[in-house]
Amino acid sequence: SAGVYTVFAPTDDAVNSLPQDMVYSIDSNPEQSKPLLQYHIIPRRINLNSLSNDETSSTLLQGKTIRFNVYSSVTPDCKQLVTASGAPIGDALATMGSVQVIPVTQVLYQPTGNLMNIVDASPILKELSQAVKSARLSWLLSGIFAF
User: Fold this and answer.
1) Which pLDDT does position 84 carry in this prediction?
2) Which residues form a coiled coil (predicted)?
């Protein structure tokens, strides 16, 4: 539909780091990727320089939002880091008419379930997941932190 959109486009490295079973699932059933893609699009253009910490924006995936965080003085070389749903984002790559494209260094995942579900599903938190389970502390990350 007509409107202004921002697309958070995962870099090639981000896509290549997806778990093989997820890639296979998406390749074998492209319709399954629709919610994932909808979560990467917001129906407005954003100004990276005017984002506020903990600002949220609705995505095209109904009922789901992307949360932006702004971190200052991250390192001597990095005066500011902006993330979208935890993924560092770069400068606007391109603006074509009503579509703005911004690269992200990770594929964005919409929060579902509870914190333990998110840790279990994350390809970069496997060690944490195993440690929490080994210590029998899964209950701490389940239930009370539901999304």
Assistant:
1) 92
2) none
